[in-house]
Amino acid sequence: MAEVDTEAVLTLLKPRWTKTPEAAQRLQARLEKVLDAAKVRGLRTGDNPAAWKGHLEALLSKKVTLSRGHHPAMPYADLPALVAELRTMEGPTARGLEFAILCASRSGEVRPTLWTEFRGLDGAKPPLWTIPGDRAEAKVDHDVPLSPRAVAILKEMRRDHGEAGYVFPGGRAGRPLANMAFNLLMDRMGCGQYTQHGFRTSFRDWAADVADASFEVAGRALSHKIGSSVPQSYLRTKYIEQRRPLMQQWADYCGAAVAGHEGPTAEPSAAQGKAVH
Q: What Rg value do the Cα atoms of the chain yield, rounded?
């Protein structure tokens, strides 16, 4: 930490500053916080080389206004090619990003995932992932039906890393993937103009345009509240059985461009069709 200087920070930020401004500005803010914390803990001294005010603002172009509430989303037609590229990569970040895409989940739901949140991975019951309410945006437990490809990812992580820690471990022992892990991987893959969170929008558009899913089923898949407080009090179903074929169909779509792909997601499930209403 003591060796990080302004030149190192600029080397990281400059190639991204105008190409992917949202990701670059969030990265700068995180760097600034990390280096501030390092100074407080006695790991470095002197000025913060990632500080914006009075420092980087004189070296980089003016910050753009970041969008709020709307995350740049990759068109769903481009997703199969991205997933095909992800499957050529190794490691928890690539597997975690694909898993997040297949489950239409948020980064903060996927990265800290624990093995105790899953059931049915070995065929005893239909596979299901229950995201605890303290990580879900709606603050209630959210059940995610898992496609065979999603289960295969989990089994790969279990084989390579065991079940003692996080499903998608980070570089530091006992820690999950870092907050920016998925977006930084996308940056390296050349699609940093989008965000990981935006894949939820990609899924929502696909669900309406291709799968012809009902508003309620697609909304529940994203853990969205349906309607105002009055219908919410009556509409308590999670649509698990309707969402299961929808998530299978989504996994089939995302895996369509994988060359030589074998296994359960290579062909559409006979049970899927458009029975997702």
A: 20
Q: Is the C-alpha dihedral spanning 240, 250, 184, 73 positive or negative?
A: negative
Q: In this structure, are residues 79 and 253 in contact, taking their beta carbons and an 8 Å threshold?
A: yes
Residue for token pair 């990580």 = 135
Backbone phi, psi, residue 242, to 5°: -75, -35
65, with CB counted inside 10 A (0-12, 13-18, 19+), is exposed
Cα–Cα distance measured from residue 221 to residue 207, given in angstroms and rounded to the nearest whole number? 10
Between strands 118-119 and 142-145, the pairing is unpaired
Q: Is the pLDDT of residue 67 over 60?
A: no
Residue 138: pLDDT over 90: no
pLDDT in tens, 25-42: 888 988 999 999 999 999
Rounded Cα distance, 128 and 141, in Å: 12
The identity of residue 186, as a single letter, is: M
Residue labelled with tokens 């969402």: 243
List pLDDT tens digits, range 241-263.
899 999 999 999 999 987 444 33
d(CA 27, CA 180): 8
Question: Edge-to-edge strands of the sheet including 142-145?
Answer: 118-119, 128-131, 142-145
Residue 76: how many CB atoms within 10 A of its CB? 20
